Each structure stands twice: as C-alpha cells, then as structure tokens.
C-alpha cells in the first residue's frame, strides 16, 4: 500500500512538471513546446511591404558591380564634394581636406574593405600632403560614408511618392517607413539622392560599371605640382 502511494505521488509530480515545463527559444523567449519557437520567430520577422514594380526597380541594382560619383552633402554647402569609387566590397573615398596650404595634410583618401570592415588611409597629393603614401589604419565608422547601394540594402518597406529626373536620369521618389526619401534611378535601381530629415546626400555625376582595379588603389597625384 505504501509503495502504491509513493508511486502515485511520483506520477502526480511528473504530470505537474510536464505541465509547467518551459522551453527557451534562440531569441530568449520561453514557450511551453519547442515547436512554438519557430512560430514566434516568424511573427517577429518584419514583413516586406514593397509593391511588385518597386521590387523590380530595386532588383536592377544586382547588375551594378562598380560605380564612381561625386558625393555631396547639399545641406552642408561649405563642404566640397568628394570623389568616391566603389567596386564590389572595395571603396576608395576622398576626404574633404584643406586645399590652400601646401604640404599640410597627413591623409586625403581612405580605402575601405566593407566586408572585413577595415579602413586604410593614404595621402596622394604631392602638393598638399606632408608626405605621400600609406598613412595607416583609421576607424571604419568614423570615415565611411554610405554609398547608394548601402541605402537600399535589405530595404523591406517603401512606397512610391512621385517620378522625376536627376541629371537626365529617370528616378522614382521612394519613401521608407522611417520617412527617408530615396530618389532611385529606375535603370540601375540605386538612389541618386537621399533625404533624411534636413540632410540631403547627393551622388552626382554617377557612372556605373566602369571602375578599374587601379581606381580603388593608392595613386600618387604627381600632376598637382604643375
């Protein structure tokens, strides 16, 4: 009789434990059954809100393997435009250095590897640099400026506001759910202008798929002495 009573208690304990067991999902949430984890993860994933025509335009940027342009902050009129070259994961970006005093700058360009998130500074101008050559590594986040492809990477929500032309190119003005306006080239699927509040980022005189390997490497500017 005593053994039967102990067995009954153990059975009740196991049943109670099974009813209160919690499973921890990869995102840290707890559920009563393991199969509920996948349901929660699906619900938490943002849903894509892009019309078919917007998606077709944006998909065209898959054909962009390189580009060069003049980057300008329209809301900062005193800061000159700088030249940028992009080829796959390599980016070479000029810096808006002073250009009135000779042999003053320690660096005037930065070359980035966006996959490894590394940044190496150089000084190229023989007229404006203290010395030309490698100036050493610098902080990636401090110097890197988003290129057009960065603005539309992983974009999941946007609506078409209007159509226009920029620099003779047809663009669609797309507005994201965070109120960023992307003036997107309809042939290559990348923004030529980005408005973020009072900021205006412009990618002027853009050229696609014409950047050579030599364009994203250090190149001493000897002609500056002329």
Sequence-ordered SSE layout with sheet pairings:
Blueprint: H1 2-20, E1 23-24, E2 30-31, H2 36-44, H3 52-59, E3 66-73, E4 82-87, E5 90-94, E6 109-113, E7 118-123, E8 133-137, H4 140-143, H5 148-152, E9 158-166, E10 169-176, E11 180-185, E12 191-196, E13 199-208
Antiparallel strand pairs: 1-2, 3-4, 3-13, 4-5, 5-6, 6-7, 7-8, 9-10, 10-11, 11-12, 12-13
Q: Using DSSP, what is the number of strands?
A: 13
By CATH reckoning, the class of the largest domain would read Mainly Beta
Q: What is the CATH-assigned architecture of the largest domain? A: Clam
Figure out the total of helices: 5
Instruction: Walk across the major sheet and give the strand order.
Output: 8-7-6-5-4-3-13-12-11-10-9
Give the overall shape.
globular
Largest sheet: 11 strands, antiparallel
- What level of helicity do the residues show? 10-25%
First-to-last CA distance:
108 Å
Which class do the helix and strand fractions yield? Answer: alpha+beta
Uncertain segments of ≥5 residues (pLDDT<50)?
none
| Mean pLDDT across residues | 87
CATH superfamily of the largest domain: Lipoprotein localisation LolA/LolB/LppX
SSE sequence, one letter per element: HEEHHEEEEEEHHEEEEE
**CATH fold type of the largest domain:** outer membrane lipoprotein receptor (LolB), chain A
Q: Over all CA atoms, what is the radius of gyration?
A: 27 Å
């Amino acid at each position: 009789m005593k053994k039967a009573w102990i067995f009954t208690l153990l059975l009740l304990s196991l049943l109670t434990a099974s009813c209160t067991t919690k499973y921890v999902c990869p995102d840290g949430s707890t559920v009563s059954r393991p199969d509920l984890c996948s349901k929660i993860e699906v619900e938490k994933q943002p849903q894509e809100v892009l019309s078919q025509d917007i998606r077709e335009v944006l998909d065209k940027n898959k054909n962009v393997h390189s580009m060069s342009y003049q980057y300008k902050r329209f809301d900062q009129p005193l800061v000159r435009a700088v030249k940028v070259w992009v080829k796959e994961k390599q980016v070479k970006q000029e810096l808006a250095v002073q250009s009135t005093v000779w042999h003053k700058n320690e660096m005037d360009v930065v070359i980035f590897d966006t996959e490894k998130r590394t940044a190496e500074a150089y000084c190229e101008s023989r007229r404006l640099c203290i010395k030309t050559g490698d100036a050493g590594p610098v902080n990636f986040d401090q110097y890197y400026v988003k290129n057009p492809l960065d603005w539309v990477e992983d974009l999941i929500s946007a609506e078409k506001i209007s159509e226009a032309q920029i620099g003779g190119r047809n663009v669609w003005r797309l507005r994201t759910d965070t109120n960023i306006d992307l003036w997107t080239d309809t042939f290559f699927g990348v923004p030529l202008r980005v408005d973020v509040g009072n900021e205006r980022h412009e990618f002027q005189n853009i050229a696609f798929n014409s950047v050579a390997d030599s364009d994203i490497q250090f190149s001493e500017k000897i002609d500056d002495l002329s």
